[in-house]
Amino acid sequence: MYDDAVLTYLEGFLTEGRKQRFLEVLQQRTRYVTVAIEDVYQLHNTSAVIRSCDAFGIQDVHIVEDRFGKRLDKNIAMGAEQWVDVIRYPTTSECITALKDEDYEIIATTPNCDSISLPDFNLNTKTALFFGTEKEGLSEEVKQKADRFLRIPMVGFSESLNVSVSAAIIIQEVMNKLYKPEIVWQLSDIEILEKRLDWTKKSIKDVERIISRYLNT
Protein backbone atom coordinates (compact mmCIF):
# COMPACT_ATOMS: atom_id res chain seq x y z
CA MET A 1 0.00 0.00 0.00
CA TYR A 2 1.32 3.43 -0.94
CA ASP A 3 2.07 5.91 1.85
CA ASP A 4 3.28 9.35 0.73
CA ALA A 5 4.77 10.29 4.09
CA VAL A 6 6.72 7.03 4.37
CA LEU A 7 8.03 7.41 0.82
CA THR A 8 9.21 10.95 1.47
CA TYR A 9 10.96 9.86 4.66
CA LEU A 10 12.62 6.79 3.14
CA GLU A 11 13.82 8.65 0.05
CA GLY A 12 15.93 10.72 2.42
CA PHE A 13 18.14 7.62 2.77
CA LEU A 14 18.81 7.50 -0.99
CA THR A 15 21.24 9.50 -3.05
CA GLU A 16 19.83 11.99 -5.54
CA GLY A 17 21.27 9.84 -8.31
CA ARG A 18 19.41 6.78 -7.06
CA LYS A 19 16.10 8.63 -6.81
CA GLN A 20 16.53 10.08 -10.30
CA ARG A 21 17.34 6.66 -11.71
CA PHE A 22 14.13 5.22 -10.28
CA LEU A 23 12.12 8.01 -11.92
CA GLU A 24 13.84 7.49 -15.27
CA VAL A 25 13.25 3.75 -15.29
CA LEU A 26 9.63 4.04 -14.18
CA GLN A 27 8.86 6.42 -17.05
CA GLN A 28 9.68 3.51 -19.40
CA ARG A 29 7.89 0.77 -17.47
CA THR A 30 4.69 -0.83 -18.74
CA ARG A 31 1.97 -3.30 -17.83
CA TYR A 32 0.39 -3.02 -21.29
CA VAL A 33 2.65 -5.92 -22.30
CA THR A 34 3.32 -8.72 -19.85
CA VAL A 35 5.06 -12.10 -19.96
CA ALA A 36 3.92 -15.51 -18.73
CA ILE A 37 6.36 -18.41 -18.27
CA GLU A 38 4.81 -21.88 -18.18
CA ASP A 39 6.66 -24.65 -16.35
CA VAL A 40 10.18 -23.69 -17.37
CA TYR A 41 12.44 -26.31 -15.76
CA GLN A 42 15.87 -24.68 -15.82
CA LEU A 43 16.13 -22.07 -13.09
CA HIS A 44 18.58 -19.93 -15.05
CA ASN A 45 16.12 -19.72 -17.96
CA THR A 46 13.39 -18.32 -15.73
CA SER A 47 15.85 -15.82 -14.32
CA ALA A 48 17.07 -14.84 -17.80
CA VAL A 49 13.53 -14.17 -19.04
CA ILE A 50 12.85 -11.97 -16.02
CA ARG A 51 16.06 -10.04 -16.67
CA SER A 52 14.93 -9.44 -20.26
CA CYS A 53 11.62 -8.10 -18.97
CA ASP A 54 13.47 -5.70 -16.69
CA ALA A 55 15.88 -4.64 -19.45
CA PHE A 56 13.10 -3.85 -21.92
CA GLY A 57 10.62 -2.28 -19.49
CA ILE A 58 8.04 -4.96 -18.66
CA GLN A 59 6.98 -4.66 -15.03
CA ASP A 60 5.05 -7.90 -14.42
CA VAL A 61 6.05 -11.52 -15.03
CA HIS A 62 3.58 -14.37 -14.47
CA ILE A 63 5.04 -17.78 -13.62
CA VAL A 64 3.12 -21.07 -13.75
CA GLU A 65 4.68 -23.57 -11.34
CA ASP A 66 2.57 -26.64 -11.98
CA ARG A 67 4.83 -29.49 -13.12
CA PHE A 68 8.21 -28.57 -11.65
CA GLY A 69 7.30 -26.52 -8.59
CA LYS A 70 8.92 -23.29 -7.54
CA ARG A 71 11.62 -22.36 -10.05
CA LEU A 72 12.67 -18.98 -8.69
CA ASP A 73 13.82 -18.30 -5.14
CA LYS A 74 15.19 -15.46 -3.07
CA ASN A 75 18.77 -16.43 -3.91
CA ILE A 76 18.08 -15.64 -7.57
CA ALA A 77 16.04 -12.50 -6.92
CA MET A 78 19.05 -10.39 -6.00
CA GLY A 79 19.76 -8.67 -9.33
CA ALA A 80 17.45 -7.37 -12.01
CA GLU A 81 14.67 -9.64 -10.74
CA GLN A 82 14.01 -7.50 -7.67
CA TRP A 83 12.76 -4.66 -9.88
CA VAL A 84 10.14 -6.81 -11.61
CA ASP A 85 6.88 -7.99 -10.03
CA VAL A 86 6.63 -11.80 -10.15
CA ILE A 87 3.14 -13.30 -9.85
CA ARG A 88 3.02 -17.06 -9.29
CA TYR A 89 0.26 -19.53 -10.17
CA PRO A 90 -0.13 -23.23 -9.34
CA THR A 91 -1.87 -23.99 -12.64
CA THR A 92 -1.97 -22.70 -16.20
CA SER A 93 -5.75 -22.30 -15.98
CA GLU A 94 -5.48 -19.87 -13.08
CA CYS A 95 -2.83 -17.85 -14.87
CA ILE A 96 -4.83 -17.54 -18.10
CA THR A 97 -8.04 -16.72 -16.21
CA ALA A 98 -6.31 -13.98 -14.23
CA LEU A 99 -4.82 -12.43 -17.37
CA LYS A 100 -8.08 -12.58 -19.32
CA ASP A 101 -9.87 -10.97 -16.36
CA GLU A 102 -7.40 -8.09 -16.78
CA ASP A 103 -8.30 -7.90 -20.51
CA TYR A 104 -5.03 -9.30 -21.79
CA GLU A 105 -4.87 -10.94 -25.21
CA ILE A 106 -3.16 -14.33 -24.84
CA ILE A 107 -0.31 -14.75 -27.32
CA ALA A 108 1.21 -18.23 -27.55
CA THR A 109 4.79 -18.22 -28.81
CA THR A 110 5.20 -21.31 -30.99
CA PRO A 111 6.82 -22.21 -34.32
CA ASN A 112 3.54 -23.59 -35.65
CA CYS A 113 2.91 -22.86 -39.31
CA ASP A 114 -0.23 -20.83 -38.56
CA SER A 115 1.67 -18.46 -36.26
CA ILE A 116 2.18 -14.80 -37.08
CA SER A 117 5.77 -14.01 -38.00
CA LEU A 118 7.28 -11.62 -35.46
CA PRO A 119 7.89 -8.74 -37.93
CA ASP A 120 4.19 -8.90 -38.92
CA PHE A 121 2.85 -8.95 -35.38
CA ASN A 122 0.77 -5.95 -34.28
CA LEU A 123 -0.31 -4.94 -30.79
CA ASN A 124 -4.10 -4.75 -30.77
CA THR A 125 -4.68 -4.50 -27.04
CA LYS A 126 -3.03 -5.40 -23.71
CA THR A 127 -0.84 -8.37 -24.53
CA ALA A 128 0.41 -11.37 -22.56
CA LEU A 129 3.28 -13.27 -24.21
CA PHE A 130 3.36 -16.96 -23.18
CA PHE A 131 6.62 -18.94 -23.22
CA GLY A 132 6.78 -22.67 -22.56
CA THR A 133 9.06 -25.31 -21.13
CA GLU A 134 12.41 -26.10 -22.73
CA LYS A 135 11.57 -29.37 -24.48
CA GLU A 136 7.83 -29.59 -25.10
CA GLY A 137 7.06 -25.89 -25.42
CA LEU A 138 3.65 -24.58 -24.43
CA SER A 139 0.92 -26.87 -23.14
CA GLU A 140 -2.13 -27.75 -25.20
CA GLU A 141 -4.21 -25.70 -22.79
CA VAL A 142 -2.35 -22.51 -23.66
CA LYS A 143 -2.60 -23.27 -27.37
CA GLN A 144 -6.34 -23.93 -27.12
CA LYS A 145 -7.03 -20.78 -25.12
CA ALA A 146 -4.64 -18.48 -27.00
CA ASP A 147 -6.04 -15.60 -29.02
CA ARG A 148 -3.14 -15.58 -31.46
CA PHE A 149 0.14 -17.41 -32.16
CA LEU A 150 3.54 -15.83 -32.67
CA ARG A 151 6.80 -17.20 -34.08
CA ILE A 152 10.32 -16.01 -34.72
CA PRO A 153 11.22 -16.35 -38.42
CA MET A 154 14.31 -18.51 -38.90
CA VAL A 155 16.19 -19.47 -42.07
CA GLY A 156 18.68 -22.06 -40.78
CA PHE A 157 18.45 -25.75 -39.95
CA SER A 158 17.46 -25.12 -36.32
CA GLU A 159 13.71 -25.10 -35.76
CA SER A 160 13.74 -23.61 -32.28
CA LEU A 161 15.77 -21.50 -29.87
CA ASN A 162 16.41 -21.68 -26.15
CA VAL A 163 13.40 -20.26 -24.31
CA SER A 164 15.37 -17.39 -22.78
CA VAL A 165 16.83 -16.45 -26.18
CA SER A 166 13.39 -16.59 -27.82
CA ALA A 167 11.92 -14.47 -25.06
CA ALA A 168 14.60 -11.80 -25.38
CA ILE A 169 14.12 -11.54 -29.16
CA ILE A 170 10.33 -11.40 -28.96
CA ILE A 171 10.18 -9.01 -26.01
CA GLN A 172 12.52 -6.52 -27.64
CA GLU A 173 10.62 -6.58 -30.94
CA VAL A 174 7.19 -6.32 -29.31
CA MET A 175 8.32 -3.47 -27.08
CA ASN A 176 9.58 -1.59 -30.14
CA LYS A 177 6.04 -1.83 -31.53
CA LEU A 178 4.58 -0.48 -28.29
CA TYR A 179 5.77 3.11 -28.40
CA LYS A 180 3.00 4.69 -30.45
CA PRO A 181 0.99 7.84 -29.64
CA GLU A 182 -2.32 5.94 -29.80
CA ILE A 183 -1.27 3.41 -27.12
CA VAL A 184 -1.45 4.41 -23.46
CA TRP A 185 1.27 2.05 -22.30
CA GLN A 186 2.82 3.90 -19.36
CA LEU A 187 2.23 3.11 -15.71
CA SER A 188 -0.37 5.29 -14.01
CA ASP A 189 0.72 7.97 -11.55
CA ILE A 190 -0.32 5.86 -8.56
CA GLU A 191 1.48 2.80 -9.97
CA ILE A 192 4.65 4.85 -10.29
CA LEU A 193 4.37 6.04 -6.70
CA GLU A 194 3.76 2.49 -5.48
CA LYS A 195 6.86 1.23 -7.31
CA ARG A 196 8.96 4.14 -6.02
CA LEU A 197 8.06 3.08 -2.50
CA ASP A 198 8.68 -0.59 -3.24
CA TRP A 199 12.07 0.00 -4.88
CA THR A 200 13.12 2.48 -2.19
CA LYS A 201 12.36 -0.08 0.52
CA LYS A 202 14.41 -2.69 -1.36
CA SER A 203 17.35 -0.28 -1.46
CA ILE A 204 17.60 0.31 2.29
CA LYS A 205 19.10 -2.14 4.74
CA ASP A 206 16.91 -3.04 7.74
CA VAL A 207 14.12 -0.97 6.25
CA GLU A 208 11.30 -2.46 8.33
CA ARG A 209 13.01 -1.38 11.56
CA ILE A 210 13.51 2.10 10.11
CA ILE A 211 9.83 2.34 9.11
CA SER A 212 8.69 1.08 12.53
CA ARG A 213 10.87 3.67 14.29
CA TYR A 214 9.51 6.42 12.00
CA LEU A 215 5.87 5.48 12.59
CA ASN A 216 6.35 5.35 16.34
CA THR A 217 7.99 8.77 16.69
What is the CATH topology? Answer: Alpha/beta knot
- What class, by secondary structure content? alpha/beta
Q: Report the mean per-residue pLDDT as an integer.
A: 89
Radius of gyration: 19 Å
SSE order, one letter for each helix or strand: HHEHEEHEEEHEHHH
Low-confidence parts: 73-77
The CATH homologous superfamily name equals SPOUT methyltransferase, trefoil knot domain
Query: Which shape, going by the Cα principal axes?
Result: elongated
CATH architecture: 3-Layer(aba) Sandwich
Total DSSP helices: 8
Number of domains: 1
Gap between N and C termini: 20 Å
Helix % is 40-55%
CATH class identity:
Alpha Beta
Number of strands: 7
Describe this protein's structure.
This protein is an alpha/beta fold and 217 residues long. The chain has a single domain, classed as SPOUT methyltransferase, trefoil knot domain (Alpha/beta knot), CATH 3.40.1280.10. The chain has 8 helices and 7 strands; from the N terminus they run H-H-E-H-E-E-H-E-E-E-H-E-H-H-H. The chain has helices at 4-11, 16-26, 43-56, 92-101, 140-145, 163-178, 189-202, 207-215; strands at residues 33-38, 60-64, 85-89, 105-109, 116-117, 127-131, 148-151. It has a 7-stranded parallel β-sheet, with helices on both faces. The chain is elongated. The model is unreliable at 73-77 (pLDDT under 50).
Could you give a quick summary of the protein structure above?
The protein is an alpha/beta fold.
